[in-house]
Every structure is written in C-alpha cells, then in structure tokens.
Amino acid sequence: MDLAYSERHQVFRSELQQFLKEHKDSAPKGRASIGKASDEAKQWQQLLIKHGYAARNIPKKYGGYGAEFDILESHIIAEEFSKSNVRPGHSGDERVVPVLLELGTEKQREELIAPTISGEMIWCQGYSEPGSGSDLASLSTKAVLDGDEWVINGQKIWTSGAQHADMCFCLVRTEPDAPKHQGISYLIFTMDRPGIEVRPLVTMTGEAIFNETFFTDTRVPKDGIVGKRGEGWFVANATLKHERGSLGDPNQTESRFRSLVELMKNETIDGTPLIKIPAYRDRLMRLQARMLTMKYNGMRILTAYLKKEEPGLPRWIVKLQGCELNHQIAALAIDAMGELGVLYEDSPYIRDAGMWQKSYMLDLGLIIGGGTAQIQKNMIGERALGLPKEPKYKQGA
Amino acid sequence: MDLAYSERHQVFRSELQQFLKEHKDSAPKGRASIGKASDEAKQWQQLLIKHGYAARNIPKKYGGYGAEFDILESHIIAEEFSKSNVRPGHSGDERVVPVLLELGTEKQREELIAPTISGEMIWCQGYSEPGSGSDLASLSTKAVLDGDEWVINGQKIWTSGAQHADMCFCLVRTEPDAPKHQGISYLIFTMDRPGIEVRPLVTMTGEAIFNETFFTDTRVPKDGIVGKRGEGWFVANATLKHERGSLGDPNQTESRFRSLVELMKNETIDGTPLIKIPAYRDRLMRLQARMLTMKYNGMRILTAYLKKEEPGLPRWIVKLQGCELNHQIAALAIDAMGELGVLYEDSPYIRDAGMWQKSYMLDLGLIIGGGTAQIQKNMIGERALGLPKEPKYKQGA
Amino acid sequence: MEFALSEEQVMLQDSVSGYLKGNCSLDVVRQGVAGGITKQADVWQGICDLGILGIIIPGELGGVELGFLDAALIAEALGRAIAPVPFIGSCIMAPVALLNGGSEQQKETWLPKIASGEVVFGVGVTEQIARRETDGIQCSGGKLSGKAMFVVDGVDADMLIIADDSGAMHIVDANASGVTRRALQTIDKTRAVAEVVFDSVEADLLPGSQNDKEPLLKTIDAGRIMIAADSLGAAQVMIEQAVAYAQERKQFDRVIGSFQAVKHMCAEMASDLEPCRSLVWYTAHTVNDMPEETRMLACHAKAHLSEVGRSIAKIATEVHGGMGFTDLLGLHYWFKRVGLNRQLLGSPELVREEAALAQGW
Amino acid sequence: MEFALSEEQVMLQDSVSGYLKGNCSLDVVRQGVAGGITKQADVWQGICDLGILGIIIPGELGGVELGFLDAALIAEALGRAIAPVPFIGSCIMAPVALLNGGSEQQKETWLPKIASGEVVFGVGVTEQIARRETDGIQCSGGKLSGKAMFVVDGVDADMLIIADDSGAMHIVDANASGVTRRALQTIDKTRAVAEVVFDSVEADLLPGSQNDKEPLLKTIDAGRIMIAADSLGAAQVMIEQAVAYAQERKQFDRVIGSFQAVKHMCAEMASDLEPCRSLVWYTAHTVNDMPEETRMLACHAKAHLSEVGRSIAKIATEVHGGMGFTDLLGLHYWFKRVGLNRQLLGSPELVREEAALAQGW
C-alpha cells in the first residue's frame, strides 16, 4: 500500500494544476453539449491536445498528442479536471475511436480520427433497437450487399446526438442465417444520406437527449465496415465495455456528494441547517460511507490496471453500485430541500440550476441504460461468482 | 365502512373479557411448549372449550364446543387473548384437524379429533424432505402397499415435535409412475412403530425445535389414508393454506410493536431514552406506519371473509410483508439495546428474557419457512398479477 | 364490522374514474400542461358536473356532505388520472379550514361557492410545517404582510386561505392589491404551487383559528390524507403499467415478466402498495368517525405513501427499461406527481417526527 | 501509487488463513464453544507461534512492528475462521492505549508480555461511547470504583485497561481484590464480553490519557477498525457458502443458483461487500500513514460494515433455505459473530453521528 505518486507523476500533476490555473478561463462553461462543438470548445480542445491533456494517447499522425499510455496520467488528468471543475477534453469519441484504432483500416484511421478528435466530426451510435434492449444481439436492422453498397433497413433507438451527427457507427444484421451473435456487422457511414430519418426522443427530463433513427433503403459504401462480415458483435464489445466503464465513476460521485454537503449546510428548516437535523444527517452519513467505499474501490481497480491485472469483482460492481448511489445522493438532496427540491426549469428559488432533479432522473436512466441493473446482476452472478446461466428452454413453451 | 361490531358481537366480546378477567390466573404462563401438554394446559383447554373459547367450531361429538363458524367470533377470541396476553386455547392441531373434518372417514374423525383437541394426542407433520423444500411435490419418501399395510421408506425433515408426537400425518409417494403432483398420498399413523427414528435438529436459536425423521421399512395400516391414493397433494394443500395463513398475523406484529415502544421508552443511552434519539425514533416511526398498514390490511381481509369473498392481493402479501416486518421490529429492538441487545440465554442484564434475539432469528426462519420469500414473490407475480410462469426447460440442459 | 367501501362508495369511485378515463386521458393531460395549464377547464367542469367539488361540504351549504373516505376515493382517482385540477387545496383543505375555523357568515359566503366551482381557493400553510425561503407572515391590524411559499392550488385560486405566524388563518382575495403571486414551476406540470407575497393586505380572520391550532392542524391533516390518496392512485397506475409492459415486452425470446427478476420487482411493488390502500382508507375514515386518531394517522399516511410512492415510481420505470425513461408512454407524469406529493406539506422525515409527537413520544 | 496488499501482506494473510483453515475449523470452534471457552488454548498458541500477537507492537518491545493494515488482515482472517481468541482487545486496543497513553515503564512492562501471549488484556471503554446499565467509573486517589460493561476480551483477561468517567485510562489487575467479573453471555459464543465491577481497586493510570482524550479515541478507533475487518471476513465466508450452496442445491430440477432470484441475491451480497474491503484497507492504512483521516473513517468502517454485515448475514441464510436456519452447516456462527460486531463499541446510528462530528458537521 503506497498512496504516494512517483516523482514523475507528482510533477505531471503539478504542471497540470499550473496549467489549469492559468487557462481555466478559456475553458467553455458548463457541460459539453451534445452535438456540434462550439468554436470555443474546439479551441479549448486544441489547447489541451497541445499540452497533452486531451487525446493524450492517440498517435500524432491521427491528430493526438502521441504519448505512451500511462493509466496514472489519465487518472490524474480526470481527477484534476474534476476537482477544479474545469471542462475536460476528450479523445475524440470514446466509443468509436478505440475501435478504429484497434480494428479499423489504415485508411479509416487516417480519414476519421483526426477530425473526430478536433471536434469537427460528430458521431452517433446505432446499436439498440426498440425490440432489442437488454438482448442487444437480437437486433434486426438489416444490411444487404448490393454491388459496392450496403442497403440498410430498420430502426435504431437511443441514438444520442443523431440530429447533429456527421457519422454513424452502427450494428446491422448482414448474415440472417447465422446464429444471432455471428450475423452482425459493424458499419460506419456518413449521416447525410437519403433514407435516414432522425426523430427526437424526449425523455422524462423534458429534453431530447436521444433520437430514434430510421433507415429506409439507405445505401452506404461497402468498405465502411470495421472488421469482417459477421464479426460486428465482437468489434462492438470492446466499445460497450468501455462505455460501461465510465458509468458510476467515483470521482463524479464524490464531487456530487460534496455538493450535497454544501447544500445541507446552506438549506435550513425554521432556521436550522439540514445537516444538523438528525434524520437527514444520518442519511447523509450512510451515503458518505458508501461513497467512500466506491472511491477506494476505484483506487483498487486503478492499481489492478497499473499492474496489468484484471480487476475482477471490484470492476464488475461499479456500474450497479455507482449509479444507484448517485441516484440516492440526488434523492437526499431533493428531500433536504423539501418543496424547494421539486422546483424545476426556470422556477424562482430553484437551487443549483435544478441539477438535483435532473440528476435524479438521469441517474435512473443510467441505472437502466448500458445494461439494466438486472443484467448487471446476471453478469456479476454468472461471470464473477460462477453461478450457472438460466437453462435453455423449449421454444414456444 | 363500519368498524363497530354488532350488538351480539359486542356482548360476545365483553363476556370474553369478563371470562379472561376471572380466569386468567388459571391459564398456564408463557408460550405453549412443543410436545405433551401439561396437566395445567389440558385443564385450561377444557375450561376454554366449555365456554366456547377453544375448539369452538368443532362438532360436540368430536369433543368441541359445537358452535356454528362465525369469523368475527374467531377474530374477537384471537384479539382478546392477544391483548390480555393470556395463552389461547386451540382447536386440536390446526394443520390436521381441518383435514380430518373435511376429508377423513367417520371412523378417523371419531377416534382422532377428540383426543387431539383435549391435548392427549400430539401430531407431527411429515411433509418436507432434505431434497424437497420449495419444490415440495418432488418428495421421494415412498410407501408401498404390502397386504394390509403400507411400507414406508425415506426421510422427512422439519418434523417439529416428532420426539413427543403420538401421531404423524405424512405425505408419501405411492404412485411412482404418475406425474409428480399425482403420485402422492396422505397417510396418518402412530409414531410408536418400529423403523421410525427421530433425530433432533438444532436451529440457530440453539433449540431443537425441529427433527429429522427417518423411516425404514416402517409398516402402517392400509386404512390410515385420508382421501384416495394419489390425492395426497390436494388433501395437504388445504392445510398448507391454513398454515401459511397464520404467518405474519398482524395482531402479533402489533403486540410486538407495542413491546418495542416500551423498550425504547425504558432503555437509555447516557440517560436519554432511545425513543427520544432521532435516528432510532425515525426508524420506529417507519415501522409503525408499516405495522398499521398490515393491521388495516388484516381488517380488509377479515371483511372479505365475512362477505364470503376471496380477499385476493391483500391476502397474498401477508406472509411476505408480515414476516419481514416482524424481523425488522426485532432488528430495531436489538439496535436500540446496543450491546445489551446481543445478550442471550441466561445472561445478566438480558431484556425481555432474550425474546428479541430469539425473534430476530425465528422471524428469519419464518421468512424462509412455509414458502420462502422468493416463492411468495413468484406466487404474487403469477397468481395475483397474472405474470407468466417461467417457461419449461429442456431436461438436462 | 365492515372494513370496505360501501356500494355507494364503489359507485362514486367508478363514476369519477369512468369520467376521468373518458375525459382526462394522458393525451388530454399532455395537451393541457403543454400550455402551462394546471386547472384544465373541461376537466374541472366535468368533475364539477359530477357534483363532487362539495364532497365534504354540508348539504345546507350546497355540498354533498359525504365523508373523508369518499373524498379520498376522489383524490385517488385524480391521482390515477394525473388530473390537472385544484382539488386538494380548494375542495378539501379550504373547506376544512372554513368548517373548523370560520364564522357562520364565512361558511355561508364561501362554502357554496366552492361546492359550485364558482370560486377556487388556494391554501398556504407551509410555513407552519417547515419554514424555508421566507420570514413568515405577520398579521397586524387585520392586514397580512410577508410571504407564503408553496401555496397549494394557489396559481389558479380566486381566494386564498393563509396561515400567519401564530397559526391563525385568514381569507384573502387572491387578486387584492398588495398581493403578488408567482407560479413556482415544479417537476409536476399537472399541478402548480404558488409563491404569494403580501404587502399589508386586508385579511378576513377565521375567528376559530385565532387562539386554537386545531383548525390549522385539521387543515394540514386533511391535505396530507388527500395527498397520500393521490399518491396511492398514481402509484397504482404505475404498477399496472409495469405489469402490462412486462406481459408484452419480449427480450431473449420471452416476455420479460416471465423472468424472475422482473416478476419479483412487480410482486414487491404490489405487496408494498396494497396495504397502503387500507391505511389510506382507515385514516380517511377516522376524520369523521374517530377524529382523535386522525393526527397520527394522517402523518403516517403521508410519509409512508411518500416512501412507497418513490420506490414504486423508480421500480416501475426500471421495469419499462429505456422506454420508461422516455416521454413516449408518459410514465414520467406519474413519477413526477408522486415526486411533488412527497415534498408537499412536509417531506417524510419531518412528518414522521410529527407522528411521534402526536403520540406524546 | 499502489492501493493493494504488498507481497508480504499477502503472505501474512495466507499464513494466518492457512493456519486457521487447518487448525480452527468449524468443528474445532464448535467443540471449544460447547465448553464455554472463548480463548481456545490451541488456537491461541497457534497464532502466538505465528508471531502475530505483537503485530502493532514495536520491535524493541518484542513485537513485529507492522501496520494496522496488517493487523486488519489478521482480524479479517480471524473473522473468516470465527476464531475464539481475544485478539481485538488484547492485541490491538490494549497496545494502542499503552502506546498512546502509557509511560515508558508501562510500555516496557506490558507490551512484551502481550506480544508473547503471556498476558491477555481486556479493554473497557464502552461507557465512553454509550453508557447504559451503569453509573460509570470513578477514579479517586488512584483507586477505581464503579462498573464497566461489555469489556472486550474481559473474560479471558489477566489485566484490564479501563476508561474512567473523565476518559482517562487505567491498568488494573483483573484478579485484584475488589474486582468482580462476570461473563455476559451473548449470541456469539466465540467471544465473550465481561461486566467488571470495581470496589476501590488499585489502578495504574496511563499518564498520557489523563488530560487528553486522544489515547482513548485512538483505542476506540483501533477497536472499531478491527471489528469492521472481522465482519468483513465473516460476511465474505457467508457469501462464499451461499454461492457454493446455490451451485449445488437443486429444486425444480435445477440448481437454485440458476434462478434469477437466487443469483441476484448472491450478486447483491457480493457487490455490497466488495467495496467494503477497500474501505477497511484504506481506513487501516490511515492509522499509520494519514492519522488525521482515521477518526471519521474508523466510524464509517464500523457502521457501514455493520449494515452490510447484517444484510449479508440475512440474505446468505435465506439462500440456504431451511438449512441455513439449522445448526447443521453452522452458518449461524458467522451470523452471530456479525451480530455481536454490530453492537460492540457503538451501534451504527451512534457511530455515524460520531463520523459527522469528526468532520465538524
């Protein structure tokens, strides 16, 4: 157990802190919007890449900074941006860029990665379908090869940012006769084609974060495939894994918890701060304990990665525990505010710009999305604990 | 909505209250022990039968009081004995006597019911087996007809009181080739036969409440069958239903809750009564609300029975909710006592004779027994809400 | 002994539910709230025509003089339908305040108008439960000054009943000069709470509330019982929708309701909520028949339905998967109704503390 | 940056666990406790031979001078094995009291004897956490009078460390005249707490604890961390047993672990407990390396492991069905160990309040 960082990493951290101090005023305010990056955001990203605080491990020739991957550096970057509440940069699109780097053709990499990193090129993900949620591999959007083109028909859902996207990475069924996991291909194509219709999908928060995307005889180039025909499921899994990785991030939970403490110090009932009212205080302490377990659990995972080990159970449980914990932090914040806690949108007296109600709903969305809590528990039970899968049942029974 | 009782029932209640006032000193103290009734207990039972407060609806010719069944009278009897904390009487054995009354032969009824009611004849139940818990119908104890006798081989478990029992009512497989629910028969026989071995089964409370009972070529008379061959599952179900009915009784929960309140008024930390310490107080109020929901839910069920209606969902949930609630009441009591709450057996300073720890464990046993919480939820989901059963599986898959 | 709804009550329930089913569908609610309307004229007129606005108002004052259990059944039906109407404040809390604290003249003036729907009342008592963004309301020389937050049904009100810092209640013209009202937009667009600022405004004291907190407490109790009933209805719908979805939605070649995980979620919701119905019935019944039990029970009904409601709103949404998170099925309208109910007139921890105090603990 | 056990720590853990596996099986524990023994001679000698009794005692005083994380690994292993030995009081709390409050002479006298296992210490500090059945302990003229309840490892102790009402701690000969000891039988027969009554008994003050509460608080913190580690070990075993049982036990022609309900119970237990391991590690690590963080963390570790432990004890028993309720598999020994741990040195609500105070909240 040695929680100190090496000399080199300490220097790295203090340089970053210095950088943030100097430049934080040029960072765009608020969260990154879905869709087109503003000029300000693009400039910020450029500055970060230049200093190696964004796209750090993407090769220079694809527009990145080109440093060797060092997980502690990544961790320090995430931590310091979170602590100083400055908008972090990105490595393009964390769902598709790693796939292209690993499995794309050289041509795909050269054409696509640099504009993605710079913020010029926006992607949307075409995975889920109305009929294929937890059982993603049952997806039915088809692509048939016709000459030099795939012809796509079907419907995708949860395609966030599709209305702004230049590109789509998409799972389609190309081998209808193969077993379900082996009949899927991973296609990438531009969104400006005939036969693509994007309809916004309003969520419970009142915003259209997602879309439904319809494909009708949409023709896309044959060479827009990553990996081979029928290998799409395995191509996609790398990115799915990555996406799930970020749900339940303990840095974010800790920062949320700190905001909750501030809130409970400031809000009062009949003049008494909420943090002094025992029943709320006890709930706060319960959540703090859980927040701390997840924080140190995160350190354990990080250490495993540093040692090139599989983190195992500590990793499997992050999404399940982290999303639920975030939801409960928001729930306590709302209760602590009482009636003030249900104010929304542009109401007078609203606290923290309504973020608590929004989080409360978004966190519920995250409990569901990216593998529902039930799917998570199946995975933990089967993969981490070695319990048997449900037996196969008779079709039509 | 009319919560008043009829004139007749009010009179019935006040007579009972008067009776209890006069006679409560002749009631045996404490809970009825498993096994042989003491002479005192038998006399008390006789007195209760004479006044119609025990075995009230059992016909006179079988040793009962012989009144028509009136659910409100039964309810009043249960309530008043519970309120005044006097040991109630019984109607023999609530698992087997209803079966004999409904499906037994006249000879069985005449020979067995009267001594059971008087407390002379003690029964034990041979249903569960080590391999057949939740899936009771898979039981494998066999009985083969040989001349005028059934020859029984196999093992039963959870046979409470078997070491004291005169009689056993037992489910055995008599038709090995029939589908599992249709191959079972319901046998009754005396326990004094060769080939019956009773081994006590110690539970987590430290007591041997249960036994394992082994049958080796045990021969019992052919006519000791209730119902026909292969009908045992359906014969037993009436009694199982009855047994489940009593788990989670809200009268008992309310009386437990009252004891908890007393405890929290009397126990102190640094001189402050627990009921005044907010975090414990809040838990107490949460439990009170749930206790009240179950109390009024019980009134709703009672009303349905009065109207000869099926109570439906309110009835289905009693065991699941009631047992869990009892468990949580005990849990709060233990926490309120702190270190005093883990004292056990004959420890100095132990409160309420250690009943809280014992309840905490027994309630967990009840959450498991008589249909685990998981089986209860299956039933609620399937029978009350109409959700489909799990599909049939391929054998060996 | 009969702990059940009477035939008349079942009929009342059926007629209100039937009307709302036909006339206050999700589409109707959506259209209304899209325009920021929290008192939907057609629906309001419809339930007015059902003759239920005066549900607890005496017959000689134009009401139908039924009990609180009847009122709770209506509140439950309105919760089921997420109906955008000012029922709880105007038809329940205000009449309770008037009946318990008002002079004969005040009763005669206002109760018939409430019963006919001619006048809508908002009720501001929050500061007497848990004061937050305000220094409270002072009454001096028959004039009110200060700020009342979260006035129930206050946005659509013609008249207001406002509790001052002493707990005395006053009738105030919502449009009088010196009154400034703002709608406070909450997550629940089907109902609106208001902030009302008073600058030396003429107020008509309810004399019975001057030196006696009972009228105020009865008003709060009544509101809490109705909110509990509203949550009961809303949560019930969410369970029904989740069960229906679980019976239909297929994943892995099976309807999801055949998976134990989903089945048990449904079973847990149903077994948590069903006993709540009995608590709401019993509590409402006590108001007329065993008023000494009401205070403690009203607190419990409010707090417990808040807890169960929150849990069901979450689980029912989860059963719907991603679909529950969207606006497509509109499930979130119930989610948010339950969310507002939880905080109105005291969030659960505060209300449980009151329940303990009510028992002398 | 390395948040993990060192190779030496893994070896320590393996050697202690290995020893206990071979020499402190459930059968051994059963036999011991059947005779009312809470310090099982063979096991005690065995862990003494492993040289771990002086785990936190400086080398020059006969100890092995390792850290609290090492100690926590031992406590976890002892919890796994439900080992009937007086480790937490004698080997951790007493040395912490002596090291932080004792004079050089007191340290030199007692620490080597603790490290060698020659002397067992009991520690009585409960009255400083939450006083119940006692008027406390007064010290006057170097003599103690009063009653200490729930003295950790007090039944098997040769010597005692007792906190008086001022928070000052004293060494007392457990067999001195004027000392009356009684074992308090708890649900957990693998360890015993004692009631000790003092009637003007000669006491040797730990001078550093006279006007400074730090030594007392550090003693309590240390005990809480070890109790948390003990619960971690015990709960871990319960999960392993439940998973193993679910893989074996068949009902409805399937192993029960293939049912989602059972599978999810196991998954929930594992995902609740696994992060607790990190909390215990981190907390123990702070004692030596970041002591300013210890107080708050020790409270959280104790309270949170109490909650998670209780929940796992219940669920693991449920997974075992009726079998879990019997003595056959002995699962209840772990259930009860976790049960005692929950209450010792403060039940969760009290300890969470201390965690808040420790942060100035």
What can be said about this structure in brief?
Chain A contains twelve helices and ten strands. Chain A has 397 residues and is α+β, with helices and mostly antiparallel strands. In chain A, α1 packs parallel to α3 (71-84), α7 (250-266) runs antiparallel to α8 and α8 runs antiparallel to α10 (318-337).
Descriptive account of the structure:
- The complex is a heterotetramer, with two copies of chain A (397 residues) and two copies of chain C (361 residues).
- Chain A has 397 residues and is an alpha+beta fold.
- Chain A folds into three domains: 7-91, no CATH class; 123-233, Butyryl-CoA Dehydrogenase, subunit A, domain 2 (Beta Barrel), CATH 2.40.110.10; 247-384, Up-down Bundle (Butyryl-CoA Dehydrogenase, subunit A, domain 3).
- Chain A is built from twelve helices and ten strands.
- Chain A has helices at 7-23, 39-51, 71-84, 97-103, 106-118, 232-246, 250-266, 278-306, 313-316, 318-337, 355-368, 373-384, and strands at residues 123-126, 142-146, 149-157, 167-173, 184-190, 196-201, 210-221, 225-226, 268-269, 272-273.
- In chain A, the strands form three sheets. A four-stranded mixed beta sheet of chain A has the order 1-4-5-8. A four-stranded antiparallel beta sheet of chain A has the order 2-3-7-6, with no helix packed on it.
- In chain A, a hairpin with a 2-residue loop joins strand 2 and strand 3 (149-157).
- The longest helix of chain A is centred in the last third of the chain and has 29 residues, at 278-306.
- Chain A starts with 6 loop residues before the first helix and ends in a 13-residue tail after the last helix.
- The mean pLDDT of chain A is 92.
- Chain C has 361 residues and is of the alpha+beta class.
- Chain C has three domains: 7-116, Butyryl-Coa Dehydrogenase, subunit A, domain 1 (Orthogonal Bundle); 121-209, Butyryl-CoA Dehydrogenase, subunit A, domain 2 (Beta Barrel), CATH 2.40.110; 214-358, Butyryl-CoA Dehydrogenase, subunit A, domain 3, CATH 1.20.140.10.
- In chain C, the strands form three sheets. In chain C, strands 1-4-5-8 form a four-stranded mixed beta sheet, covered by helices on one side. Chain C has a four-stranded antiparallel beta sheet with strand order 2-3-7-6, with helices on one face. In chain C, strands 9-10 form a two-stranded antiparallel ribbon.
- In chain C, helix 7 (214-248) packs antiparallel against helix 8 (260-289).
- The model of chain C has no long low-confidence stretch (mean pLDDT 96).
- Chains in contact: A-B, A-C, A-D, B-C, B-D, C-D.
- At the A-C interface, strand 9, helix 10, helix 11 and helix 12 of A face strand 9, helix 9, helix 10, helix 11 and helix 12 of C.
